[in-house]
Structures are given as structure tokens and as C-alpha cells.
Write a structure and sequence with these properties.
With 321 residues, this protein is of the alpha/beta class. The chain has 13 helices and 16 strands. Strand 12, helix 9 and strand 13 form a beta-alpha-beta unit. The relative contact order is 0.14.
Length: 321
């Protein structure tokens, strides 16, 4: 069995997608030592990525992460590395490959003894870095990674062959690449509702729709309709709950959902229009700027029931290990 530690030098480079690309079609084990995107399942907190792997590979979800916060991890486990080894022993039996998924930095967990270096040394795991971004940034990362005796998976990059050649010239091993998969940009409205602690006040039948892109409706209704971004499909609108003109203008076929800020509920006519169109209206307490910032920063996990996304990764990822 091969042990792999999937890492990145920045958040959002595609570690989970790469972990799937490595493990699909194999008997895989998985642990994400420190979770960073909590999901609430049966009154318990689990990491979304751990939940995905638990369902895809029939793994015990409660064993796939030690926790989200250092204080709770240290409170629950006197020796975190010992606990990790115990869980690894339970999960790894009969597997072809075992994935450790890292956090947003390679030193995350160092004070607990469960950072990338500690885990790779303890479990003889191969560090695999997922690289994304513009070409100059990627080349800087390659130079750094080459000194770590690590492998690379490129994700959503242009000029893959050129970057592969550059990496190999600098002594880094390249395991392959994952192209830009458009379906992975889509996020379910129901996920956003949960993460924002929002309340769906109309259009509930559209809660499982997807969105791709955000439009802040801060202009007048006529200006909104003329804006080029408003014409894009699958958009998530964010506007004040008191902006009845803007809300009415945004209830149209290219809109996936509308977030209403400041905890203000529009008129019953607006609610009825949204119900008829099947476009969720989501009421939240914070202001428009705060909500827009939060939505932009939210991680976009893959759910176990998103079979089309998983199948796209299976078909399109070109990764060998």
C-alpha cells in the first residue's frame, strides 16, 4: 500500500479534487487530520471533505478527522500523533492507497506533531503538491517544491506540457494534471444556506439548484438589467431585503437564488413571484458587503451525491501514481 500526503502552498488549489483523482478506482483509505470546513451530521461536527471520502469509500466518518480546533484536539487527545496512528491502523487494512489530506499550509498541525513533515516521516508518505495559479507563481512554487523531494499534480493550468518540462528540469516529479472541469465551479444553493445560517423564505423547490458566480444588485432595477454580468446564467444575487425593485428584477430564469441581507423580508407579492419561479429567496442577518465577502471565501466542497462531478474527475484527470 502506498501512503500519499496531498498538500498545497495556498488554499483553494484543489487538494480534494487531486485526492479523488488519485484514489478513484482504488480501494482507498483517507484521513484529513485537521478539518477546516465543518458539516453538522447527526448532531456531530465532521469535515465536508472527510464526509465525501467516508461515503465514497465506505469509511467511518467519525475517524477521518481529529477535529477542527486545536484546543479541542489537544483536550481530546494527549498524543495526537498516537491517535492518528491508531486511526490509520483501523482504516488502512486492505487498502491499495492511503491519502492524508493537508490543510491550507504545509506547517498546519506542526505544534500537534501532525503537519506534513511529521506525517510523511511517520508513515513514509509521499508528499504530493497540487499547483494552480498563473505561470510565474507556479514556477516559483516548483522551485520551492523541488527541494522537498516531492511530487506535483497540476490543476487548472495552461501550458501543462511546458510546466511539466520546467518541473522535471528542476528535479521535481510530475504525477499528471487535472484540466479545468467546469462542473466543479458549480455550488449547490442548499450548501450556501447552511453555511450562511440563512432562512429560505420563498422558492424552496429550487434549493438544490447550482450557482456559478455572484452578482451584487446594488444598482437600480433598470441598471441591473442592462449590466452584462446580469445576463450570465446560474448566478447568485446578493441584495438588501428592502430593495423590492431590485429583487423583482432579479427573479428571472438565469438566476439561481437571491440572498436578502439585513434580515429584511420583502412583500408577499415578491415572495409569491419567487415561489412561482422556483427561485429561492434566502434571508440573512448581516449586510450585503459582509455576506458577499463570506460567500466569496467559502470553500466549495464536492458532495458524495454529486455523481456528475465525481465522474468528470474520473474521466478527465490524468494522474498516475
Amino acid at each position: 500500500m502506498k501512503n500519499v500526503y496531498v498538500a498545497s502552498l495556498e488554499a483553494g488549489e484543489g487538494k480534494t479534487v487531486a485526492a479523488l483523482a488519485i484514489s478513484l478506482n482504488k480501494r482507498a483509505g483517507y484521513i484529513k487530520p485537521i478539518g477546516d470546513n465543518p458539516a453538522y451530521v447527526k448532531k456531530k461536527i465532521v469535515d465536508y471533505d472527510a464526509l465525501l471520502f467516508s461515503k465514497l469509500f465506505d469509511l467511518p466518518e467519525e475517524k477521518l478527522s481529529l477535529g477542527m480546533h486545536y484546543s479541542k484536539i489537544t483536550h481530546n487527545y494527549k498524543d495526537t500523533l498516537k491517535e492518528l496512528k491508531s486511526r490509520y491502523g483501523e482504516i488502512a487494512e486492505g487498502k491499495d492507497i492511503f491519502i492524508f489530506e493537508g490543510g491550507e499550509s504545509i506547517w498546519k498541525g506542526a505544534s500537534l506533531g501532525i503537519d506534513m513533515n511529521s506525517i510523511c516521516n511517520e508513515f513514509n508518505a509521499t508528499p504530493v503538491f497540487v499547483l494552480s495559479g498563473d505561470e510565474d507563481e507556479i514556477k516559483d512554487k516548483i522551485k520551492f517544491i523541488a527541494s522537498l523531494n516531492a511530487s506535483i499534480i497540476f490543476n487548472r493550468v495552461k501550458n501543462y506540457e511546458e510546466l511539466k518540462e520546467y518541473a522535471e528540469e528542476n528535479g521535481a516529479s510530475v504525477m499528471g494534471h487535472i484540466p479545468d472541469i467546469k462542473k466543479l465551479r458549480l455550488t449547490k444553493i442548499s450548501y450556501i444556506v447552511k453555511k450562511l445560517n440563512g432562512k429560505v423564505i420563498a422558492g424552496t423547490e429550487g434549493i438544490e439548484k447550482y450557482f456559478d458566480g455572484i452578482f451584487i444588485a446594488a444598482l437600480s432595477a433598470s441598471q441591473i438589467k442592462r449590466h452584462p454580468d446580469f445576463k450570465k446564467r446560474n448566478k447568485l444575487i446578493i441584495t438588501g431585503g428592502d430593495r423590492s425593485d431590485a429583487i423583482a428584477a432579479c427573479i428571472e430564469e438565469n438566476t439561481s437564488a437571491i440572498i436578502l441581507t439585513n434580515n429584511i423580508i420583502p412583500s408577499s407579492n415578491i415572495l409569491a413571484k419567487a415561489d412561482k419561479a422556483g427561485i429561492p429567496l434566502i434571508s440573512v442577518r448581516p449586510d450585503t458587503y459582509t455576506i458577499a465577502s463570506r460567500v466569496e471565501k467559502l470553500p466549495r466542497p464536492i458532495m458524495a451525491d454529486e455523481e456528475e462531478k465525481i465522474e468528470e474527475i474520473r474521466k478527465m484527470a490524468k494522474v498516475k501514481i
